[in-house]
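go over whats below:
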Amino acid sequence: VQLQASGGGSVQAGGSLGLTCEASGRSFNYYAMGWFRQAPGKEREFVGGISWDGGERIYADAVKGRCTVSRNHAKTTLYLQMNSLKPDDTAVYFCATGAVGDLKNRDEYMYWGQGTLVTVSS
């Protein structure tokens, strides 16, 4: 199984970025997918997640209202649209997938991508 995240970059505060995660290597029909981020010196934290059928989407309070998680119909691609970015959003963003019960629980995700760096300047 491989997850390939892309779309990171540098942006000024208030700007937008869209991240993409391509999954391959098995069927993901019944797997949830999620985004996490890790800033320097901090633990990896939940950003947003979506259930296998797209019926449930949840977000961390820190990004709620500014980010949207979605996935394609084939359930092999995960997206994260981030708007109104803040310097505090600077981090390496990781995508993950698995047979997850609690979308916020990083320990339930089985497979992880390599991460893509997002830098937001003030």
In short: The chain has no helices and eleven strands. The mean pLDDT is 95. Residues 35 and 95 are 5 Å apart (CA to CA).
